[in-house]
Design brief:
Distance between the termini: 32 Å
Radius of gyration: 15 Å
Number of strands: 9
Oligomer: single chain
Structural class: alpha+beta
Largest sheet: 7 strands, mixed
């Protein structure tokens, strides 16, 4: 019996709208968890997602990329609005209460843990995969750090309705 990944969640987008898994209608979704002050994994992955969407040309509009913060205490909608704008105009940043974020992480079987850096600050350890979801919120595939934008675009194109 397959576990439904990402089948139910509720968060706030970077425009301060309440959204959930049904908010993006007929779009396929690329979902990535991270946080705005992430030093390397997040920028690299978000650049990769942006590049992938560019490579899809006119099919790129069928994709809704979502960046879900694992650090809601710091990543307010305002912070996320500035952050996602650096990568792609299509990218939506999502945050919420700690409970909403935890429940969303759970829904995706994703991992995030706050780690003290020993200097009064902290960083977030988190899953670095990108979930590729169908419009009806079924998991199509999971991309990891070894997948290039070319690989991702190829697989996404294959999944999109041909027409």
């Amino acid at each position: 019996e397959s576990v439904a990944i990402g089948s139910h969640w509720e968060l706030t987008d970077h425009h301060n709208n309440k959204v959930n898994e049904g908010s993006y209608g007929d779009k396929y979704k690329l979902v990535f968890f991270g946080f705005a002050s992430c030093p390397d994994i997040c920028p690299t992955t978000l650049q990769k997602i942006a590049k992938t969407i560019e490579m899809l040309d006119n099919q790129g509009g069928a994709i809704q990329p979502l960046f879900i913060s694992t650090d809601p205490a710091t990543d307010t909608p305002e912070v996320l609005a500035r952050y996602v704008a650096q990568y792609s105009p299509q990218l939506v940043g999502l945050t919420g209460t700690q409970e909403q974020v935890d429940s969303t992480l759970e829904s995706f079987h994703a991992y995030a843990e706050k780690i003290d850096d020993g200097e009064g600050g902290y960083f977030m350890n988190h899953s670095s995969v990108v979930y590729f979801m169908s419009p009806d919120n079924k998991l199509i595939s999971v991309f990891d750090s070894t997948d290039s934008p070319v690989d991702m675009a190829k697989e996404i194109r294959h999944a999109l309705p041909q027409g």
